[in-house]
Write a structure and sequence with these properties.
By secondary structure, the chain is an alpha/beta fold. The chain has helices at residues 40-58, 62-78, 80-91, 95-115, 151-164, 178-190, 205-214, 227-239, 262-274, 291-307, 326-341, 370-373, 389-397, 412-421, 455-461; strands spanning 2-3, 6-8, 11-13, 20-24, 31-36, 130-138, 141-145, 168-172, 198-200, 220-224, 243-247, 252-256, 284-290, 345-348, 352-353, 356-357, 360-363, 380-386, 401-402, 404-408, 426-429, 445-446, 449-450, 463-471. The longest helix has 21 residues, at 95-115. The protein has two domains: 2-248 and 448-467, Aldehyde Dehydrogenase, Chain A, domain 1, CATH 3.40.605; 252-429, Aldehyde Dehydrogenase, Chain A, domain 2 (3-Layer(aba) Sandwich). The protein binds nicotinamide-adenine-dinucleotide. Nicotinamide-adenine-dinucleotide (NAD) binds next to helix 7 and helix 8.
Length: 479
């Protein structure tokens, strides 16, 4: 078992208080690593380090920043196994999930490298006596706060694009997956990033979050986490008039119309609901099915769910690994039990051993049940029957969330009606609600967040837009 240090100003250091906390393996329950437990003093120290590094990093040529990002991509690709082992040991990710996450992160780093030289301002053809244009400048220091479910890529969206835009960055990884954050520190150290441009501080978000965001040297906050955390972070940032992006929770619908290919629909639903044990912001939580096919669909999905291999995530054949911690097991189980007590029908699942929760399919779910309204973040999906696409749209939009949605149909008129009408930041036709690429605007509306991450959307969010004019000759003023 390794004891880690934090990465501050290019040095590996203990917490100021010397306190540590245990990072657990969610499958075995054993201590996987020991990690520094930072507090307000560590927040002060890390913000100071990031502040000192600002001048140097913002003056670095964009193509030099790109070289660091390309090098980090190359190192990550070359050390897949090392990163995969961490993602499985502390995050419970199965082989397929962690390989997918690493490939996507390599792509993200390469895309961010290419984006370094593509932050394009405008010129305005207004008054011929002057040149008038917009330029982008780095914001300063970004505080990046990431979750445990896709801890590598969701940290990297913030880190890579903060660095690409010439900001220094302080990464605060989730306490269930702190080591992957520290590995990101190592990766950039090896890639030749100057000291202090990236810093990684570990410890409880409830303590470090306010201290980092409230610090005057923090210029921007990029959070991925629960909606309740987002609301708190937004209030803390707004109190100091700081800007932020928030990538938050979801209760994503998958609409299946009667003309859908049945086997395809079942596969899309199972993938969307059960990948990474349903612990994805984009996971399918509600499957809304047209009445003529609902019974057959539910039976087939339940059969598929019951057949998925569950267990040790380090075995390449496992599809369903553990939930991240005991609190999550309790929360998932409580939602299922409440739904059943209120009249939902359990087709399969609803039981667990240790932290392995069996893939669960519910029907007869009503809008007042928690399992319909609230994010579950577990391998649980509800099937709701509707009479047509209009009712499907109403049911899908009957949620406070608005992250992602899927639609399965061969009818393009209905697909367009749904794609336009769904209240979500992302809609995928003939796919599940799970999709992400570095080059697209990733994010949601309503309680699922504010702002977008990815390529030029991150480049612009993480930069200050400035209007600049140059008078061609001295102009006469009226007085
Ligand atoms: P979480 O909100 O508990 O924690 C996220 C991060 O915020 C962690 O680093 C945590 O330490 C920190 N944090 C906690 N309290 C804080 C506070 N008071 N101030 C500042 N930071 C604080 O979320 P989680 O359990 O790690 O992740 C799961 C959640 O993230 C789910 O709701 C999921 O939908 C959401 N998520 C959203 C997206 C997206 O892109 N929209 C992607 C992945 C996960």
């Amino acid at each position: 078992m390794k004891t880690w240090k934090m990465f501050v100003g290019g040095q590996w250091v203990d917490a100021v208080s010397k306190a540590t906390f245990d990072d657990l393996n969610p499958y075995t329950g054993e201590v996987y690593a020991r990690v520094p437990k930072g507090d307000a003093k560590d927040a002060d120290r890390v913000m100071a380090a990031a502040y000192v590094a600002r001048k140097l990093w913002r003056a670095t040529a964009p193509r030099e920043r790109a070289q660091v990002l390309y090098k980090a991509a190359q190192l990550l690709e070359g050390n897949r196994k090392e990163f995969a082992d961490v993602l499985t040991a502390e995050g419970g990710g199965t082989f397929g999930k962690v390989m997918f996450e690493i490939s996507q992160t390599v792509d993200l780093l390469q895309t961010a490298g290419a984006d370094c030289t593509r932050l394009l301002g405008e010129t305005f053809h207004t008054d011929p006596t002057k040149l008038s244009m917009t330029i982008f400048r780095p914001r300063g220091t970004v505080v990046a706060i990431s979750p445990w479910n896709f801890p590598l890529i969701l940290s990297m969206y913030k880190v890579a694009y903060s660095l690409a835009t010439g900001n220094t960055v302080v990464l605060k990884p989730a306490s269930d997956t702190p080591v992957i954050g520290l590995k990101i520190g190592e990766l950039f150290e090896q890639a030749g990033l100057p000291a202090g441009a990236l810093n990684v501080v570990t410890g409880p978000g409830s303590v470090l979050g306010d201290a980092l965001i409230g610090d005057d040297r923090c210029s921007f906050v990029a959070l991925t986490g629960e909606t309740s955390t987002g609301r708190h972070v937004a209030q803390t940032a707004a109190a100091k008039l700081k800007e932020y992006t928030l990538e938050l929770g979801g209760k994503n619908p998958l609409i299946i119309l009667a003309d859908a290919d049945m086997d395809y629909a079942v596969s899309a639903a199972a993938f969307g609901a059960f990948l990474h044990q349903g612990q994805i912001c984009m996971s399918v939580g509600r499957i809304i099915v047209e009445e003529p096919i609902v019974e057959k669909f539910a039976k087939k999905l339940a059969g598929k769910a019951a057949s998925l291999p569950v267990g040790d995530p380090s075995l390449p054949t496992t599809v369903i690994g553990p939930l991240i911690n005991d609190d999550q097991v309790r929360k998932v189980n409580a939602q299922v039990k409440e739904a059943v007590a209120q009249g939902a029908k359990l087709l399969t699942g609803g039981t667990y051993e240790g932290r392995i929760y069996r893939p669960t399919v519910l029907t007869n779910v009503t809008h007042d049940m928690q399992v319909f309204r609230e994010e579950t973040f577990g391998p649980v999906v509800s099937i709701i029957s509707v009479k047509d696409e209009k009712e499907a749209l109403e049911v899908a939009n009957n949620t406070v969330y608005g992250l992602s949605a899927g639609v399965i149909t061969k009818d393009m008129q209905k697909a367009i009606f749904l794609a336009e009408g769904l209240e979500a930041g992302m809609v995928h036709v003939n796919d599940s609600s799970i999709d992400a690429e570095a080059c697209v605007p990733f994010g949601g509306c309503k309680w699922s967040g504010q702002g977008r991450e990815g390529s030029r959307y991150s480049m612009e969010e993480l930069s200050e837009l400035k209007w600049v004019t140059f008078q061609k000759s001295l102009k006469p003023f009226p007085f």
